[in-house]
Amino acid sequence: MEPDDSTIKEPTDRDVAPKLTSKDEDSGSVQQRELLQALRAMRAGDFTIRLPVDLLGLSGKIAETFNDIVEANQRMAEQLEGVGQVVGREGKTRRRVNFGLSQGAWGEMETSVNTLIDDLLWPTTEVTRVISAVAQGDLLQTVQLEVDGRLLQGEFLRAATIVNAMIKQLANEEIQSFAYMVGHDLRGPLVNIMGFTSELQALRDAIFERLGEGGEAFAGERLDPKAAAAEFDEAIGFIKAATVKMERLINAILAISRAGKRELKPEKIDMSALVKGVVTTLAHEAQAVNAEIEVGTLPSITCDRLALEQVFSNLLDNAVKYLRRGEPGRIQVTGYASSERVIYEVRDNGRGIAEADQKRVFELFRRAGAQDQRGEGIGLASVRALVRRLGGTIKLTSALNSGSTFQVALPRNFTDQR
Amino acid sequence: MRPVTIIMIEDDEGHARLIEKSLRAAGIANAIVVFTDGASALSHFFGQDGWGGVSAGAALLILLDLNLPDMDGGEILRQLKQNLHLKRTPVVILTTTDDEREIQRCYDLGCNLYITKPVDYTRFANAVRQLGLFFSIIEVPEAA
Lengths: 418, 144
Known about the structure:
The structure holds two protein chains of two kinds. By secondary structure, chain A is an alpha+beta fold. Chain A contains nine helices and nine strands. In chain A, helix 4 (104-135) runs parallel beside helix 5, helix 5 packs antiparallel against helix 6 and helix 7 (271-288) runs parallel beside helix 8 (305-321). The longest helix of chain A is centred in the middle third of the chain and has 59 residues, at 154-212. Chain A starts with 22 loop residues before the first helix and ends in a 7-residue tail after the last strand. By secondary structure, chain B is of the alpha/beta class. Chain B has helices at residues 13-25, 38-46, 73-81, 100-109, 121-135; strands at 5-9, 32-35, 60-64, 91-95, 113-116. In chain B, strands 2-1-3-4-5 form a five-stranded parallel β-sheet. In chain B, strand 4, helix 4 (100-109) and strand 5 (113-116) form a beta-alpha-beta unit. In chain B, helix 1 packs across helix 5. Chain B is globular and about 40 Å long. The chains are: A alpha+beta, B alpha/beta. At the A-B interface, helix 5 and helix 6 of A face helix 1 and helix 5 of B.
């Protein structure tokens, strides 16, 4: 910036520590001379000088008022310097100035300085809001290019446009990978249906060809009736199994889609009671595999009841299902609250999940470890989708053969922002 | 030289059966062993100690699907190709994925052939039959 002549000049020798030499300055009283000296020091930027206030009458009042003014200046200087340091250097965006005086120009000055800080900071605040939402898996947010009539400009506008383009790309990739997975997994059973139908057709052709030759089809060498019946049964069995599997996959996809559309109704929830309720529904399974589920005192939350029931019923169901053989299961649900979030943990001593698989288990139709339990690979994918919809995150800590901990962090007060 | 055993790692039993039928139709009479998940295939190849000594001397031809329920088929391929005993065993990737990057990755990891399963069954059966004809003429080394 070009220096402006109207800005404050460096103090010169003349301004600092004046010596009273001229005749004019000798004429007043001692108090007047002291006041002049103090005023000059203040003009030179020294806000440390104070006048003695133990004087009588008007002089005392003048001294008091002078001290008030110089103190206000000192406070203003400190506040401005402090805010420059904290906001500018340390990046703490919440700090604002407070001159301690709200009358007249002081108040206006305080307001303008704070407005200036707001104007400079709001684009950063806005971008931070969106980036933290994206980091938590919410790809529906975009940086607003205008907030309260203020427009993003220059570098801020460029940054915002790039962030928005990145979010669009991420959302697009997520949809693509979902579509790819669904497409691939639905194609599997279809290949079986088409394949075994073709096999049946080939068999049928062979049979009818022989029948056409005079009804001695089943006496021929090439076509053993028992073997032909077995092939028929096998083909029909695979076709039936494939259609059943396809129906299950389609139902699962529809259920996830429905869950994503259901309106969430926040209410105050006693989490200890909710989780204990879920545990009761699993009591039979837990007993069958010798597992003990312990529910600690959980902080309450304002959230959607059904969604939470689904989340914890999935997590606990998994914990009961994937225990280590021969080891009594110990499953614990604990929780604690921070200022804005509540954190619940479901910990088990089961078979654990290898590090390489820890991302996969949250993907639709993907499973990990020994395939000795029934399942389609849907549970954790829908748990993650639900937790994200509730504005939260889910984290997995695990190692093979040494148990898993699923940590669900949720906002203490859920409000549906869609 | 021992007779070649075909090891098929394919999670869908229906697909495995259809592939077997098409191979038989091409005149392949070799033993075919099917594993429906990665973990059991790995323990078959590498044994309890994980070193692969159990496979020494076996003549194998591996048909590997990439989309397995419990792990990524590429990981099995990597382990096979890095194993002292099994690194020369031919591995044929037979999968539904035709993604360019996936194909490159598998060849980088050392697969010997990459074949995409056609969706259309006639073409699928035809492709596997041709693969069977190919199997009948290739040389398979014994595992070290």
